[in-house]
């Protein structure tokens, strides 16, 4: 419900202009600023949908072990040490020893057993009390558990059956590929000349003895046909047939019987717990096996067009730093949206609840709900706070993207747009970013320069509100590297849906600041920064979508608080 | 046109047949590259230093992904996010603008899923991995193209192979000949395959599948389920019995996730009800005269019911609002004056099923609807046992021309197959897909197959002798030509096969015990391990086509840049493929496929 703003990345669309925000597909093109990257080479915003991702290292999220990429493949992207998930609740399992043998008379010193514990060891879930002894998994040693389980995995029925299938088809494929050169040259020719039709014909893209000789139209060649069948592939004998495996599982009679007598749903394993297994498995949730924890990867990302690295994490799993980090938040001004009337309502609610907690609670609730909402047929002002991350002051110019006609043009005849947005049209300055300590030093100077000094504390809010009504458009507040500008939105009476509009933000940053924005540059400590840069003017613009919230239709607005 | 595809066939048939020389000379140079994918792939692999291919089995809801050569997928996930919404459906928007919007949504969702596959599930570099795409034969072209575009442009995979899901499933069962029924979420498709050649013109499909089962289940629960809301306060627990609090199931309780959970954890498929048994015990009242089993009841079929129920639901909710204290614990036996004609039938149906079902009622904890969030904790949904057992009846109830049952779709496909293939195919039926994971599904399907073929001859043989004086023409039976095949019908992956009828050596239950749902993925993995699988489209080829179409599109509007590219293989584009067995008739059989194949779109 709080108003939000998201930034546009043009990777999904062919045009540089953003899609109209009322389309559901447009949400995929807008991203929060902290998810975006910025390529210096291309001078463009990049998002997680378009960057090229490379894995720079694997690690286990539980034990933070960095897994060499060579063993990742063999270990199937899962931790091969002691890390396991509970099959029921996905909690991390702990290794616990068995209870010491209860001899009764000869109690050995308990200290010895507690340090190492008694074998067999098993896995235990601290959350749901599942333990691996229930499914018959115990360990002789408390270390290297996955390695101890590896032999079970290697001899899993599906991989054995898979190998057998491979052996079954391999000689047949070899034979057909060698014979195809001599026998089916003409067919091969056809495959070559017309790959599309060949594609249609088969997925195996090769000739099989038997099919070439087979022709259902000519009954006279029935004898030949039979002969062809004899040359055909021999019947495959399964290692484990589904009929024999299905005695206990696989949807056979036993399963039907079990389902029929089911008492609680939790006896049956959930789909998510079963769907990865390709071999018929028991439906019972009591038969689930512990899961090795999947590895995570550290990813470095590249620009899709120039291949420059945008982000590169440090190799160590414990580290959360980056070697290279070109994030958009360092290049584009951060914008935050707020509705002053909603904030005022929230504050009033707080104040009144503090005064008389019990009595006014319900009325305030009601008031707060309606006061924060956008009522159809009214005009609201909103504030956009621009925060400059650059060491140079910038000039920002806002423009509403010409997309508001789109809903009307989209089919609903020429319906009037449900709302109209007015933005400040003249460019406004945002001061340069400086380190925090510099602000602390120059605090007095900074705020001395600010015109809206008194507004920062809560006392002056009403006063400010009163003043902002007269000048809703334009700069409302300036402090440090933040400039707040006001805009207004006029809702029509029949307005519905969300107030969402595209806004083009273009900003110019000039290193030497000869004329514009004098008053805030004079005292800025980053002056030295600015002058050290090359004296050239750069311009960058990007699209955003501003979402002010849901419009409350007029009639319902009065009924709503009652419910 | 006729002769061109026929010549190679003749040549292969008679080895010594006079061949036209230009063809053979061209062949010797070309076939090394083309007809031996084995050579090709190994060379490529060494180039990239990777031997594993990525196998993607994209469904409308569930995706299975993994590496070739492994026995099970690495990851399975809902492509539409946690809520499990379909990425695509059988429908397309009618208007041009809506369709564009739909395409954009589809592309965004597919991109999310495909990037997730490489970056999160498999954590591998897409630029060095070839991809085998397990492709449903009726996967709409625009979806296939979108997938290919994302894989090539956004992820830059070196190549994509397209392999038919039905064929791959058959490979996983160790066969190359058979009739494969894939019962997924959107539709069920039967496709005969002979010697690894899919006989696409003989493909049959029906929209009775997982999605229909879900909507039917929801409709049944709305009518016959019971909801017990949470207690309004903890102190009231003692005085109010559960029975008085129970009410009809509010619609909001039955979210997609709840339905999915009920379907996957509670439902199973019971044995078919015996005809005579049902007749004796048939419920008293208006429909005692009906000899028919409810599954094939003409009055109001179950599938019809679930279709209608969408608009009935609003009725019910308003009705429920009017009488909120109304209890439906006793299976809503209370006669309702404004009841629809179909409803009495449904009541009878439920009574009969209740009588025959031994399945236990289940209690499920569900989140109360948002409008009733007053209580403490979660509400309880009571699922009658017969719903658990009989919800899947909707899949086996035939009679509709457009929506044939599971058995009918197999038999229809068999009817289209050349006569001398029928026996081989009927004896190697393979059932794959997510919906057959329901316990009891495959044995039931076998029973239905047998019943569909054998009922009509039985009635024909028993009745005429008794009333000889009135010689009636034998009722038309579509499946009469299949009757002689009756003893041969076997489902390869039947977990509890019936005892063989005759001395015929049966294949039933001889398939390896892979689950039906993962069969096509396993087949894809197998094809990848065998260095084969599908027609391969390399990225260079795609880029070439891309440049060409870009050039074409320069003058025209930018939207046409995304026009279909003809380099993706697709069987629907060439009605008479040269490599496939010739069609039985000279004219290509036009298949009445459902709305899914967007050939012209």
Automatic annotation (TrEMBL), chain A:
It is found in: Cytoplasm, Cytoskeleton, Microtubule organizing center, Centrosome; Cytoplasm, Cytoskeleton, Stress fiber; Cytoplasm, Myofibril. Pfam families: Dynactin_p62. Its main location: cytoplasm. Signal peptide: none annotated. Keywords: Acetylation, Coiled coil, Cytoplasm, Cytoskeleton, Isopeptide bond, Phosphoprotein, Ubl conjugation. Residues 512-533 are annotated as: Disordered. Residues 521-531 have a biased composition (Polar residues). One of its GO terms (cellular component) is stress fiber. It comes from the Eukaryota. PANTHER family: DYNACTIN P62 SUBUNIT, DYNACTIN SUBUNIT 4. Subunit of dynactin, a multiprotein complex part of a tripartite complex with dynein and a adapter, such as BICDL1, BICD2 or HOOK3. The dynactin complex is built around ACTR1A/ACTB filament and consists of an actin-related filament composed of a shoulder domain, a pointed end and a barbed end. Its length is defined by its flexible shoulder domain. The soulder is composed of 2 DCTN1 subunits, 4 DCTN2 and 2 DCTN3. The 4 DCNT2 (via N-terminus) bind the ACTR1A filament and act as molecular rulers to determine the length. The pointed end is important for binding dynein-dynactin cargo adapters. Belongs to the dynactin subunit 4 family. This is Dynactin subunit 4. It comes from Postia placenta MAD-698-R-SB12.
UniProtKB/TrEMBL annotation, chain B:
Residues 30-40 have a biased composition (Polar residues). Residues 545-554 have a biased composition (Acidic residues). Pfam families: Actin. CDD domains: ASKHA_NBD_Arp10 (cd10207). Residues 578-589 have a biased composition (Pro residues). Residues 1-43, 282-316, 454-476, 544-601 are annotated as: Disordered. It comes from the Eukaryota. Residues 19-29, 454-464 have a biased composition (Low complexity). SMART domains: ACTIN (SM00268). Belongs to the actin family. This is Actin-domain-containing protein. It comes from Postia placenta MAD-698-R-SB12.
């Amino acid at each position: 419900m709080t108003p939000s703003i998201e930034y546009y990345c043009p990777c999904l669309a062919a045009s540089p202009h953003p899609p109209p925000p009322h389309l559901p597909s447009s949400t995929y093109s807008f991203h929060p600023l902290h998810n975006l990257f910025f390529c210096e080479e291309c001078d463009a915003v990049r998002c997680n949908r378009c960057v090229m991702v490379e894995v720079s290292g694997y690690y286990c999220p539980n034990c933070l072990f960095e897994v060499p990429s060579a063993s990742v493949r063999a270990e199937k992207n899962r931790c091969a040490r002691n890390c396991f998930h509970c099959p029921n609740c996905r909690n991390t399992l702990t290794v616990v020893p068995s209870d010491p043998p209860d001899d009764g008379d000869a109690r050995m010193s308990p200290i010895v057993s507690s340090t190492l514990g008694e074998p067999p060891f098993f896995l235990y879930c601290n959350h749901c009390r599942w333990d691996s002894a229930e499914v018959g998994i115990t360990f002789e040693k408390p270390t290297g558990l996955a390695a101890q389980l590896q032999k079970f995995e290697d001899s899993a029925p599906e991989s054995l059956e898979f190998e057998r299938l491979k052996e079954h088809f391999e000689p047949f494929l070899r034979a057909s590929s060698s014979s195809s050169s001599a026998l089916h040259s003409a067919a091969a020719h056809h495959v070559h000349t017309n790959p599309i039709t060949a594609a249609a014909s088969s997925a195996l893209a090769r000739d099989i003895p038997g099919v070439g000789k087979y022709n259902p139209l000519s009954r006279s060649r029935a004898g030949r046909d039979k002969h062809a069948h004899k040359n055909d592939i021999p019947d495959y004998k399964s290692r484990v047939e589904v009929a024999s495996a299905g005695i206990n599982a696989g949807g056979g009679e036993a399963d039907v019987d079990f389902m029929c007598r089911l008492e609680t749903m939790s006896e049956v394993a959930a789909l998510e717990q079963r769907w990865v297994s390709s071999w018929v498995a028991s439906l019972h949730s009591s038969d689930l096996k512990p899961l090795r924890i999947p590895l995570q990867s550290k990813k470095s990302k590249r620009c899709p067009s120039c291949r420059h690295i945008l982000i590169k994490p440090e190799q160590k799993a414990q580290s959360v730093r980056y070697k290279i980090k070109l994030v958009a938040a360092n290049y584009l001004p951060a914008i935050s949206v707020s509705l002053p009337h909603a904030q005022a309502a929230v504050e009033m609610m707080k104040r009144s609840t503090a005064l008389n907690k019990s009595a006014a609670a319900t009325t305030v609730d009601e008031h707060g709900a309606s006061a924060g909402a956008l009522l159809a047929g009214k005009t609201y002002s909103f504030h956009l706070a621009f925060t400059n991350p650059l060491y140079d002051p910038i000039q920002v110019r806002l423009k509403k993207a010409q997309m508001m006609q789109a809903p009307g043009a989209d089919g609903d005849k020429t319906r009037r747009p449900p709302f109209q947005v007015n933005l400040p049209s003249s460019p406004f300055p945002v001061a340069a970013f400086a380190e925090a300590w510099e602000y602390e030093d120059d605090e007095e100077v900074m705020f001395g320069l600010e015109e809206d000094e008194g507004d920062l504390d809560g006392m002056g809010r009403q006063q400010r509100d009163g003043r902002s009504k007269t000048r809703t458009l334009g700069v409302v507040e300036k402090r440090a590297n933040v400039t707040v500008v006001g805009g207004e939105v006029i809702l029509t009476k029949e307005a519905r849906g969300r107030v969402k509009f595209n806004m083009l933000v273009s900003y110019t940053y000039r290193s030497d600041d000869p004329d514009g924005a004098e008053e805030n540059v004079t005292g800025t400590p980053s002056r030295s920064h600015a002058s050290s840069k090359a004296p050239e003017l750069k311009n960058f613009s990007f699209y955003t979508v501003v979402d002010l919230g849901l419009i409350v239709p007029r009639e319902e607005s009065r009924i709503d608080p009652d419910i | 046109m006729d002769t061109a595809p026929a010549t190679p066939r003749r040549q292969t048939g008679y080895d010594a047949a006079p061949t036209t020389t230009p063809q053979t000379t061209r062949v010797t140079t070309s076939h090394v590259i083309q007809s031996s994918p084995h050579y090709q792939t190994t060379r490529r692999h060494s180039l990239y230093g990777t031997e594993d291919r990525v196998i993607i089995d994209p469904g409308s809801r569930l995706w299975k992904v993994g590496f070739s050569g492994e026995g099970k997928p690495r990851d399975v996930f809902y492509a539409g996010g946690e809520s499990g919404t379909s990425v695509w459906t059988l429908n397309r928007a009618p208007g041009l603008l809506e369709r564009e919007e739909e395409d954009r949504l589809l592309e965004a969702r597919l991109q999310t899923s495909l990037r997730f596959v490489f970056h999160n599930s498999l954590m591998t570099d897409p630029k060095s991995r070839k991809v085998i795409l397990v492709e449903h034969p009726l996967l709409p072209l625009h979806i296939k193209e979108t997938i290919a575009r994302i894989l090539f442009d956004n992820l830059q995979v070196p190549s994509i192979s397209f392999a038919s899901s039905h064929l791959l499933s058959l490979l996983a069962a160790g066969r190359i000949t058979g009739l494969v029924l894939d019962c997924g979420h959107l539709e069920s498709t039967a496709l005969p395959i002979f010697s690894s050649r899919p006989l696409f013109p003989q493909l049959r499909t029906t929209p009775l599948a997982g999605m229909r089962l879900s909507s039917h289940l929801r409709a049944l629960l709305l009518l016959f389920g019971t909801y017990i809301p949470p207690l309004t306060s903890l102190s009231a627990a003692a005085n109010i019995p559960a029975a008085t609090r129970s009410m009809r199931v509010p619609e909001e309780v039955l979210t997609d996730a709840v339905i999915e959970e009920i379907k996957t954890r509670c439902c199973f498929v019971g044995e078919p009800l015996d005809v005579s048994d049902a007749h004796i015990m048939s419920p008293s009242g208006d429909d005692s005269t009906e000899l028919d089993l409810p599954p094939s009841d003409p009055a109001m079929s179950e599938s019809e019911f679930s279709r209608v129920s969408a608009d009935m639901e609003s009725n019910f909710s308003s009705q429920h609002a009017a009488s909120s204290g109304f209890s439906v614990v006793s299976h809503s036996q209370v006669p309702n004056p404004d009841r629809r004609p179909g409803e009495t039938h449904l009541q009878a149906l439920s009574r009969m099923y209740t009588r025959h079902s031994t399945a236990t009622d289940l209690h499920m904890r569900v989140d109360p609807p948002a409008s009733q969030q007053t209580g403490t904790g979660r509400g309880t949904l009571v699922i009658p046992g017969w719903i658990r057992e009989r919800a899947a009846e909707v899949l086996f109830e035939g009679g509709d021309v457009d929506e044939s049952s599971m058995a009918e779709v197999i038999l229809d496909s068999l009817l289209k197959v050349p006569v001398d293939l029928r026996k081989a195919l009927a004896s190697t039926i393979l059932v794959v897909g997510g919906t057959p994971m329901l316990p009891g599904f495959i044995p039931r399907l076998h029973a239905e197959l047998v019943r569909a073929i054998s009922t009509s001859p039985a009635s024909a043989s028993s009745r005429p002798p008794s009333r000889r004086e009135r010689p009636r023409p034998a009722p038309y039976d579509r499946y009469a030509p299949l009757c002689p095949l009756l003893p041969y019908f076997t489902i390869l992956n039947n977990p509890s096969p019936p005892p063989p009828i005759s001395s015929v050596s049966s294949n039933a239950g001889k398939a390896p015990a892979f689950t039906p749902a993962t069969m096509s993925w396993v087949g894809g993995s197998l094809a990848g391990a065998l260095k084969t699988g599908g027609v391969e489209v390399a990225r260079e080829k795609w880029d070439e086509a891309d440049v060409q179409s870009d050039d074409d599109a320069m003058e025209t509007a930018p939207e046409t840049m995304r026009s279909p590219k003809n380099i993706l293989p697709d069987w629907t584009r060439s009605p008479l493929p040269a490599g496939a067995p010739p069609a039985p008739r000279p004219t290509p059989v036009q298949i009445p496929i459902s709305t899914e194949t967007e050939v012209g779109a």
